[in-house]
Amino acid sequence: xxKLALALLFVLSACGPQKPRISDDLRNRLNAVLEDxxxxxxxxxxxxxxxxxxxxxQKARYDYNLAAAAWPADFVPQAMEDFNKALIGWExxxxxxxxxxxxxxxxxxxxxxxxxxxxxxxxxxxxxxKVYPQDDPNxxxxxxxxxxxxxxxxxxxxxxxxxxxxxALLLPELK
Length: 175
Hints:
- Helix content is 65%, strand content 3%.
- The chain is built from 6 helices and 2 strands; from the N terminus they run H-H-H-H-H-E-E-H.
- The chain has helices at 2-14, 24-45, 50-70, 77-102, 115-122, 151-174, and strands spanning 129-131, 145-147.
- The chain is elongated, with a radius of gyration of 22 Å.
């Protein structure tokens, strides 16, 4: 009887909490997402060109979308959210970087040059915001808030931080 109880205890302990199983295909896709994100993080740190960064960003978004389509809802959902936020942040940072290089006007409230998207993503308290003077030559801008191009680095940093948060959650689950 004791042997049966020990065998039953052994079987039950082996059936304890386990990591959700994922397919090899999803595992490969998630590894591609991790590689893409690491590449984007390195490119952001060295301020790669708009076009080079943009090409890598497209690849990362594609790989992420493939993984997200097969990602089980109970498999580290916070990592999925972190990766999506990182991609949005990198897209906005790359846009703002290109706008600065192209001589476009800074993003201005309420919706000019992605002002609202950037503020929604980063939070106004985390951004450098200025106000056009009341005597600005462009009458449409007088008294309006705008985001300076100094925010490019902050956006890249936020996105990289979100990627690293997701990476830290996902890596132990892929082992």
